[in-house]
TrEMBL record:
Leader sequence residues: none
Topology relative to the membrane: Multi-pass membrane protein
Descriptive protein name: Inorganic phosphate transporter
Main location as per UniProt: membrane
Compartment(s) where it occurs, according to its Swiss-Prot or TrEMBL record: Membrane
Organism: Anaeromyxobacter paludicola
Alphabetically ordered keywords of this record: Membrane, Transmembrane, Transmembrane helix, Transport
TM region positions: 41-63, 84-106, 112-133, 140-166, 223-245, 311-330
InterPro entries associated with the record: Phos_transporter
Length: 343
C-alpha cells in the first residue's frame, strides 16, 4: 500500500514538472519565436531537446537545496511517513494550483517560487516555524530581486557590447548573423532552464523516497529520478505555454534577433552560475529582467512598464499564494486523517 502511494506521489511530482515545462516554455522560446528565427513548433522542439540533455551535464546542487535547504528533512522524517506524504502532496498542490492560475492569466510567474512557497505553507502546520530553514528561504527570497537585476544588467551589457562591435555593420548583416546566433543563445537558455528547474522536482521526489520507503538510507538523488524529471520538463516544454509566450515575446518590448541573443545569453549565464552554487532561482524572473534590460538600451519608452508591473505583482504574490493553498491542503488532509482514525 505504501509503495503504491509513493508511486502515486512521484507521479504527481512529475505532473508538476510537466506543468513547469508547459508554463515556462515561454522563457525558452518567446524571444526566438517573436523574432521569427524559428516557427513555434521548431522552437519548442529545440528548447525541449536542450531541457533534456541537461540531465547528463548538470550538477545536483539545486536538488539538494530543495530537498534539505528549505525544510529540515530529518525533522520531517521523524514525524512519520504519513506526515512526509501529506507535506509533499500539499506542497505540490499549492504549486500546481498557482502555476495553472498564472498560466490562465498569461502571467510569467515562477514555478520555482511556487514550489518553494508550497513547501513553506505545508511545513508550517506540520512542524511549525522550527521546521523551516531560514537561511535557505532567505536565499530564495533575496534572489526574487537579485536574479532579474543580474539578468537585466547582463542583458544590457551584452546589448551595449554587441552594438559597439557591430557599429559599422549594416542592419541586414547584423540581422543575418544574429538569426544564426540566436539558435545558440536559445539552446544555452533552454539548457540552463533544464539544469535549474528539473532539479527542484528531483529534490521533492528524493524527500518522498528517503522519507518513506528508503528512510534508512542516506539522502541522495538516484539517476533514474534525474532522467524522469528532465524528460517530464522537456515534454511540458514541447507542448508549450502560448499565453505566456505572447506576454514575454510581444508585450514587454519589441525584439529583433540581436536583442533575443543578448537577452537569452544574459539570462542563461545567470541561471547556470547560480545553479552551480545551489541557489534555486526563477528562470522566469531572470529572462524577464534580461529582456527589460535589452529593451531599455533603446530608451525607457521601448519597454511597456505597465506589463512589467503586472509581472512583478505576480512575482510578489507567488510564494504567499502557493503557501496559502498548501497550508489549507495540509490542514484538509490532516482533518481527513483524524476523521478516518476516529471511524
Amino acid at each position: 500500500m505504501l509503495l503504491a502511494i509513493v508511486i502515486g506521489l512521484i507521479a504527481v511530482a512529475l505532473v508538476f514538472d510537466f506543468i513547469n515545462g508547459f508554463h515556462d516554455a515561454a522563457n525558452s522560446i518567446a524571444t526566438v519565436v517573436s523574432t521569427r528565427v524559428l516557427a513555434p513548433l521548431y522552437a519548442v522542439f529545440w528548447a525541449a531537446f536542450f531541457n533534456f540533455i541537461a540531465a547528463f551535464f548538470g550538477s545536483l546542487s539545486v536538488a539538494n537545496t530543495m530537498g534539505k535547504g528549505i525544510i529540515h528533512f530529518d525533522a520531517l522524517k521523524s514525524q512519520g511517513v504519513e506526515t512526509v506524504l501529506s507535506v509533499i502532496f500539499a506542497s505540490l498542490l499549492g504549486a500546481i494550483v498557482w502555476n495553472l492560475l498564472t498560466w490562465w492569466w498569461g502571467l510569467p510567474s515562477s514555478s520555482s517560487h511556487a514550489l518553494a512557497g508550497g513547501m513553506i505553507g505545508a511545513t508550517l502546520p506540520a512542524l511549525g516555524p522550527g521546521g523551516l530553514v531560514p537561511s535557505g528561504i532567505g536565499k530564495i527570497v533575496a534572489f526574487i530581486v537579485l536574479s532579474p537585476v543580474i539578468g537585466m544588467v547582463l542583458g544590457t551589457f551584452n546589448m551595449l557590447v554587441v552594438a559597439w562591435i557591430f557599429r559599422k555593420a549594416s542592419g541586414a548583416k547584423v540581422d543575418r548573423w544574429f538569426r544564426r546566433l540566436q539558435l545558440v543563445s536559445a539552446g544555452i537558455f533552454s539548457f540552463s532552464h533544464g539544469t535549474n528547474d528539473a532539479q527542484k522536482v528531483m529534490g521533492i521526489i528524493s524527500v518522498v523516497l528517503f522519507g518513506t520507503i528508503w528512510k534508512d538510507r542516506p539522502f541522495g538523488v538516484p539517476f533514474w529520478v534525474v532522467i524522469l524529471c528532465h524528460a517530464s520538463i522537456a515534454l511540458g516544454t514541447f507542448f508549450g505555454g502560448w499565453r505566456i509566450v505572447r506576454t514575454m515575446g510581444h508585450s514587454l518590448t519589441k525584439l529583433q534577433p540581436v536583442h533575443g541573443f543578448c537577452a537569452e545569453t544574459g539570462g542563461g549565464v545567470t541561471i547556470l552560475a547560480l545553479a552551480h552554487l545551489g541557489i534555486p532561482v526563477s528562470t522566469t524572473h531572470t529572462i524577464t529582467g534580461a529582456i527589460v534590460g535589452v529593451g531599455a538600451t533603446r530608451g525607457t519608452r521601448a519597454v511597456r512598464w505597465g506589463v512589467a508591473g503586472r509581472i512583478i505583482w505576480a512575482w510578489v504574490l507567488t510564494i504567499p499564494a502557493s503557501a496559502t493553498v498548501a497550508f489549507l491542503a495540509y490542514e484538509a488532509l490532516h482533518a481527513l486523517r483524524v476523521v478516518a482514525a476516529i471511524h
